[in-house]
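Inputs:
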Amino acid sequence: MTSYSLITLWYERQRYVPGVLAVGFSALLIALQCGLLLGLFSITSIPIDHTQADVWMGAPAVSSVDLGRPIPEGTLARMGALPEIERCEFYLQGFAFWNKPNNGGSELCMVIGSNLSPDSLGKIDKLTPEQCGLLAEEGTVIIDKSDEKKLGVELEKKAEISGYPVRVVSTTRGLPSLAGPYVLCSIATARKCLPVQKDQTTTYVLGRCRNPQDAPKVVKQLNQYKDVLAFTKEEFSLRTRLHWLLRTKAGIALGYAAALGLLVGAVVTSQTLYAATVASLREYAVLRALGIPRWRIAGMVVSESFWIGIIGIALALPATYGLAWAVESCIRVAIVSLPWWLLSSAAAVTLVMALVSGLFALRSLRQIEPAMLLR
Amino acid sequence: MISDSLVMPILQGIHLSRSFGQGETKTTVLYDVSIELFAGQITLLMGPSGSGKSTLLAVLSGLLRPDSGTVMALGHDLWALSDLERERFRLRHCGFIFQGYNLFNALTARQQLEMVVRWGEGASAREARRRAEEMLDLLGLAKKAHLRPSELSGGEKQRVAIGRALIKEPNLCFADEPTSALDWKAGQQVIELLRSAAHDRGAMVLVVAHDARIIEHVDRVIHMEDGRLWQQEESEPVLHTIKQAR
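Outputs:
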């Protein structure tokens, strides 16, 4: 069945081109849109992706890195007691109000307080050793250059976070933010800026494993305690992005756009197959007259839809990478994230769509009437 | 070759009637037609356009249900069978050749035949290929097995269509105007192949045509007009055998 389908597809390729292109377009649309959204929301997981910890431990039910709640500092000892852990440390993060100088209004910002030593686990990798040295002084912060205007400050200017006076001692580049500008500082400064972060509490305990492969094992052991929740770096990063994707309802927009792409693909593919089947109706009618079961003919149509799906996806894959590269080259920021599972999912959804299109095209087989050959 | 199998009809239509349309537009195409057809015999059903010969072929072959009457084929009451049983009967026993060749454009001559064996009998690819090549050899198309319909002449295409019908080795073979799109030379070849199917393979072959040149190549001629059979002619050997048997 497959061989006849492939032979027919190749020989009558001009007839099937619209279907193949429609499937390819659907796969491309889904993969690229999801990739763009994932990439966009990767901004939210910057604190995880740009630090050195293998394991993150926070409050129970924490759904995103920016929504951590205080946990007792004593939990650090649990992690430190595990033989797989080489080192562990505190890490503070939370939303706070940034009061611009001269009563210029306030802005929501994301305060990140971490250990600033050279081998720190929670220090954002964009901070230079010199900048870490500057942050050692309490009340000093570093912001991204692109957020200066938003926060109403420049270098060496003073502002307040939750009523606590801070001074901008340096700026970074390439640290984009989504909900509120990142404000980097020491743990001591962060504790002053985050009122919910009482003494002897931390937002997260970060750990580094002697062997990074042991991270899942460490997480499993830590999750035996009900008052904390631990993740590997990869798990927490994905959890944070997915949380943002769903919380901002961007998923709904994505769903609509993807459904539209699928619908266009399904209609064109179905019509292509329908027209191709109708064009061969007399040939199929001969087979029916000869007693060939209807399911064999249906199988050929569905098999054709399967191969249209496979070929469409095969064309879409390099096109997706090409367009992603083109977008990133234009804006000079890597914002399209195309992990293997995303591409596999897009391919699977598109293939199912192609098969369903084939099933819809089967309605043409109702027109097969062997007696028509005798009229 | 005329055998004793002529004694009992392999296919029998009894009091067949068929009409199309309803009310004022109703047109009766078959009027109480009865016919007996025998294994090993090639029969020509002749008549002008609209005489009902194709409808009779469709009814006898299990493709079109009659309004009344019975079709007995190989001991089965064909129209008393379920759709699935009739489909299986056609698969096992019937071969069809139509006026249009109705070959798949994308497939080679060999693949057209293989498809029937693979899909009809579930034969392996190797077995289907062997049988298709044998059949094409028999049809004189061994060197054209790899060609697609667009690369074959009309006569060659019709021979492939005959191969598709005969590769199942059917007991009943129905041909509707198999030569009408061909020149006489190609038409003769086609009729000889059908004659061989009857005489060498023992199949019942019913040919519907209006080309009088075919008459001398068949065992029996039945004339049809206005939905009725009105004249049957047997070739001498056939008449002799039937008389002896009765």
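Remarks. The CA atoms of residues 53 and 67 of chain A lie 18 Å apart. Chain A has two domains: 2-42+250-374, 60-227.
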